[in-house]
Specification:
4 helices; alpha+beta; 4-stranded mixed beta sheet
Length: 106
């Protein structure tokens, strides 16, 4: 999680503000961007066997107009730059901002 936070914190993802461990209803999102209505969840060993709970949680978040991105921890460890790019593109898509907007690179 610290690797993901190093990319998402302090508006480092081209100006998008993320909050870590953010309360949404009865749930806690790993990372949340209000501007893009985006929740980024890192799935590690603690999610094994909790797929039903995660599905219920996702459905609730989606009912609130949020989009949930689930990223396996192992995948994140191998591709931090790709993770940053994918999250940034989803933020652009969901917020309606232009990809031409200047800002710090991911």
């Amino acid at each position: 999680e610290s690797m993901a936070w190093s990319v998402l914190r302090d508006r480092r993802l081209r100006g998008f503000k993320f909050r870590r461990q953010y309360a949404l209803g009865n749930y806690i999102a790993d990372y949340y961007c209000a501007e893009a209505k985006l929740v980024v969840e890192l799935d590690g060993r603690t999610h094994i066997g909790k797929e039903e709970y995660d599905e219920i949680r996702n459905k609730w978040m989606e009912s609130q107009g949020l989009h949930v991105m689930r990223v396996p921890n192992l995948e994140l460890n191998c591709t931090l730059d790709q993770f940053a790019e994918i999250v940034w593109l989803k933020c652009i898509e969901r917020s309606g901002k232009s990809t031409r907007a200047p800002g710090p690179s991911p």
